[in-house]
Specification:
Length: 213
Amino acid sequence: MANDINSPTLSTTGYGEVIAKPDMAEFSVAIQADRSQAKQAKAAVDKVVETFIASLTKSGMARKSIVSSHLQLSPQYNYPKDGKPVLNGYRAVRDITVTVEQLDKLNTYLDLALQSGVNRVNNINLKVKDETQYKQKARQAAIADAKQKAQQLAKGFDSELNGVWSIVYRSHSVRPVMMAKVVAMESQSVDQGYQDEEMTISDQVDVIFKLKN
């Protein structure tokens, strides 16, 4: 692109980051049941799902904040060294994803999962409600960084900026706080180290500046 104009150019990349403190969360749990009959496995899982959802809504959570997956039902086999596979029963699995608008209630909802018979917590993802404002701040920081670099470089080479030739926006990225480990609900222990966590929201922009001849 710089070859299309009759003046020298200077290319810079601006980076911007802002740190945000999470004020909401999203967690997913799994309910699994192994039974000799498919119908029994399904019934066992459905019962836990219904109990957990009822507990959440009774505690004041909006139903739209709870998303349950379709049932996954699969036969389970034993594989002897010699001979054909032997059907050993059926496994039913369903996942539930819960959006927590008030972070201080996260432990309460996880306790409800335990009491309802949920088998495990797959992950806990901490977020911020008004993510847009942080994205905008990161973007402005990236723009300022690109300008500052260009000005310093131009000055260092005894030149001056003469406007912008092109801008390429590289979009933003969010590094959420993930409590990634799977937590077995039988242990009655859920990681509570999220309270002082922070998340990083970054942005990037590539700019080509024109230089005075």
